[in-house]
Amino acid sequence: MATIAETEQDFSVLPELPADVFTAPLQKPAHVGDDWLEPRQTEYSSGDDAIWDDLFARQMEVLPGRAATAFLHGLEKLDLGKGGVPEFGQMSEELDKLTGWSVVPVPMLIPDHVFFWHLANRRFPAGNFIRTRETFDYIQEPDVFHDVFGHVPMLTDPVFADYMQEYGKAGWKAMRYNHLKALGSLYWYTVEFGLILEQGKDLRAYGAGILSGPTEAIFSVEAESPNRIMLNVDRVMRTDYVISDLQPTYFVIESFEDLFRQTVERDFDRLYRSLGQSFTYANTAVIDVDNVYTRGTQEYLLRGGRCSGAKPV
Ligand SMILES: [Fe+2]
Questions:
Q1: CA of 142 to the centre of ligand 1 (A)
Q2: Which residues contact 268 (CB under 8 A, 6 or more apart)?
Q3: pLDDT in tens, 131-185
Q4: Ligand 1: distance of its center to the CA of 212 in Å?
Q5: Rounded to two decimals, what is the model's pTM?
Q6: What is the whole-number distance in angstroms between the Cα of residue 154 and the centre of ligand 1?
Q7: What spacing in Å lies between the alpha carbon of 209 and ligand 1's midpoint?
Q8: How do residues 218-240 score in pLDDT, each as one tens digit?
Q9: What SS3 class is residue 3?
């Protein structure tokens, strides 16, 4: 069976990108190499550290009882609330002892193939900059708070940590099939906006896009508007997504083992061959094959969503 990643691919050095693979033309800053790594993490001011502390405190008011147990344990294990922006080197030492991962600083967005390569080597690229007081509530580009607070705690979970590495290897395969969009959808609905049904009854969020902001942390698990559908990888990879508003649909896993099994054991050669170049399902759709956990009213979206100041109900 041909699984999600090419098992024979060597990721010890950055593989050569095949000539027919398109990647977004990002401008590489002169001071970074082909790995796009910053030589060192930014030095943060006391004002920057205070922004981290305030963001941390705000999240901790809403996350207990809403965030996945693995995430909350990860925050504790890495002591991310000890004050100020965490130091990547020290955090990586702790993380390495737990799951063999590290966190490496990058200058904001990096090309997909480089991002995948770092994941395949159990390195998580994290943005250096932190938002300002003016952009405290909403930023378009992920900053160090989103990347570290949102993503890194889940990397302390051994099964999720393995999933992320497999995802990185899978990226190279998706590029060759020209199906990065479909694989991006899987990332979106799991790593960024995933929900988990703990012990078969407690709905919790594990996605970094949810957990790094207060509104969606509540909306995703409690609001009546969104659909919540049990994860089916084939279905998710055919589903469109929005990046600028709360999600109209979330996909729910039963466990991280379930997520790992569904994705890593799927025959991705067959799946990629069966995919079209555009998404089949709108992000609000509920279809026949769905195992629906809750069917949403979509009231938030029908009232115009974020641009009309609709209440996230
Ligand atoms: Fe993210």
A1: 6
A2: 2, 3, 4, 170, 173
A3: 999 999 878 889 999 999 999 999 999 999 999 999 998 888 888 888 888 899 9
A4: 9
A5: 0.94
A6: 12
A7: 6
A8: 999 999 999 999 999 999 999 99
A9: coil
